[in-house]
Write a structure and sequence with these properties.
2-enoyl-CoA Hydratase, Chain A, domain 1
């Protein structure tokens, strides 16, 4: 019985001291409730940059990782869901898409999220990246962002023509007629091409029907605007693929409203790991020369620190 009272007294003392510290900080005007771990009204920024894949994104000293790793993104979404201080999530998207399975995994995590999710298309939100964005409660894009590219592509390289020219032959020993389907060493048969086309068509239908369900549109309508075309953000809004035109601040404002946050929200954001290219670019900028990062580092994404 004495132990129980000691525990209650200790807990009461901790609460009293904590409230006292908060009161003192508030009196001097430095208290921000958004900095409190359990009482703050925060928004989590989850970046989706570069090629979306289930593979690990290894860092590079020169250009950083060039992909968005499913496991990392899913862990950030689930972490934001379980954090009581976070009221909404903003997906910071700059990606041309990725593998079918990878994009489907993240799309499901976004769709099943129990907190408001706003997708912001920074520069590019195409193909699988748009599929992920479509699962959000609101899609925001700049009027000049590139959006859409809804479609599926399979590329099968063939080398047999070149190999014949240089006198190289390849003998394939197989069990099963379709075991070497898509082989680069021989011409594809019409039947094989038909089989692969059927697979692509099924994936495409899943893609289109998923976007239609997420956006509240008919499958027929989405099919009409899903010929692989890329639209500017303003065009995508007219087509019903984007809800609001604007930048990051607009996406945060909408997320705050959906999350019931009053006043300026706290922002929980991870920063990209700094690479050699980043350092050289910053140094050159200070020197007045300005070395550009190039297409790969600009659109390829970064490895984001936990």
């Amino acid at each position: 019985m004495k132990t129980k009272w000691k525990v209650l007294i200790l807990v009461s003392l901790i609460i009293f001291v904590t409230l006292g510290i908060i009161g003192i900080i508030a009196l001097v005007g430095e208290f921000n409730e958004n900095e409190m771990p359990f009482f703050g009204n925060k928004i989590a920024i989850v970046p989706i940059k570069g090629y979306i894949t289930t593979e690990s994104c290894g860092p590079s000293m020169i250009g950083g990782a060039q992909c968005a790793e499913v496991a990392v993104i899913e862990s950030r979404i689930h972490g934001a869901e379980s954090d009581p201080s976070i009221r909404a999530i903003v997906l910071d998207i700059n990606s041309g898409g990725g593998s079918v399975v990878a994009t489907g995994e993240i799309e499901k995590a976004v769709r099943d999220c129990n907190k408001p999710v706003v997708a912001w298309v920074e520069e590019v939100g195409a193909s699988g990246a748009y599929y992920i964005a479509s699962a959000a409660d609101v899609v925001v894009a700049d009027k000049n962002s590139m959006v859409g590219n809804i479609g599926v592509i399979m590329t099968v390289p063939h080398y047999y023509g070149l190999m014949g020219m240089i006198g190289v032959n390849m003998t394939v020993i197989k069990a099963g007629n379709s075991k070497d389907i898509g082989s680069p060493y021989r011409e594809m048969t019409e039947e094989e091409e038909g089989d692969l086309q059927g697979m692509v068509n099924k994936i495409y239908y899943d893609f289109v029907s998923g976007v239609a369900e997420n956006r509240g549109l008919s499958v027929e309508y989405v099919e009409n605007v899903s010929d692989g075309s890329i639209y500017l953000g303003s065009e995508a809004q007219e087509l019903g693929l984007v809800d609001v035109l604007g930048g990051r601040s607009v996406a945060i404002e909408i997320a705050a409203e959906l999350g019931g946050i009053e006043g300026a929200p706290g922002i929980v954001e991870v920063r990209p790991k700094r690479t050699l290219v980043d350092l050289l670019s910053e140094m050159s900028t200070h020197m007045g020369y300005g070395i550009g990062k190039g297409i790969i580092s600009e659109y390829g994404g970064q490895k984001w620190a936990e």
